[in-house]
From TrEMBL:
It comes from Victivallis lenta. One of its GO terms (biological process) is carbohydrate metabolic process. It comes from the Bacteria. Belongs to the short-chain dehydrogenases/reductases (SDR) family. This is SDR family oxidoreductase. Keywords: Oxidoreductase.
Amino acid sequence: MKVDLTGKVAVVTGGGGILCSVMAKSLAASGAKVAILDLKEEAAAKVADEIVAAGGRAVGVAANVLDIESLKKAEAAVKAAFGDCDILVNGAGGNNPKGTTSKEYLFPEDLKNQVEGLKTFFDLDPAGVGFVFNLNFLGTLLPTQVFCRAMAEKGCGSIVNVSSMNAFTPLTKIPAYSGAKAAVSNFTQWLAVHFSKVGIRVNAIAPGFFLTEQNRTLLTNPDGSLTARGNTILAHTPMGRFGTPEDLTGALLFLVDDSASSFINGVVLPVDGAFSAFSGV
Ligand code: NAD
């Protein structure tokens, strides 16, 4: 998909990761100057180097989306390198095993026997649940506060948040991540309304199932074959495959392009091979 983002400054949080590095590259290939923000400075620098090597303009910046001072430092670095942010992609996020139950369902026997390693709903660690909520929700809200004031002052800009399938219907075992991404989708709508008078559009992409480092052990066995969960997911994905990071770039470019999606504001766009449309029957 061809859109012209020449002269725009894009900031991608979590840009050192698997999905957002590809999103960052697609923004750069469309002419944007891209700041790759990531907790892992080396990962951010590597993606920026790859963009520059391909003829684009990019800078890698260390930033923690949960730390306002770190974000302010990053904002100053981006401003010095490229100017004010026009496009913000809130991509940093993810799950944590501490907010995850070991089994899909709670059975009566799980309450009676203390099975080594079994983590039921009752064993969930509040700190783990809080970590996942903060990373996904606050980690979307704080960069928006830091990077979008200048957008509001300028009267134009675009924000794309990264939600998930579990925001529509929670996935088994991951209550914290499901709730946190539901909050991201809800916040996307709230912010679209709140910013509607200052020319900023706010939308989200909800990726379906993409095989990445975060979920590789959940979806595949060491020999590469699918786990039971991986099989269940594919059985519920009418297109019959996992997504590739490149599947997301058309949706991203469409949502950030002020002419293509000029009146689209507050939507959560599934990119999921029809997973969210399928009842299973
Ligand atoms: P990833 O782990 O490859 O990328 C996430 C990046 O965020 C990493 O580079 C990590 O260093 C960075 N990060 C983590 N905490 C941070 C913090 N506090 N501050 C700054 N950066 C931080 O994961 P991914 O699979 O590419 O996921 C990208 C986004 O897509 C996430 O929001 C994830 O929840 C979402 N998502 C992924 C899938 C999937 O199937 N992989 C599906 C739906 C949604």
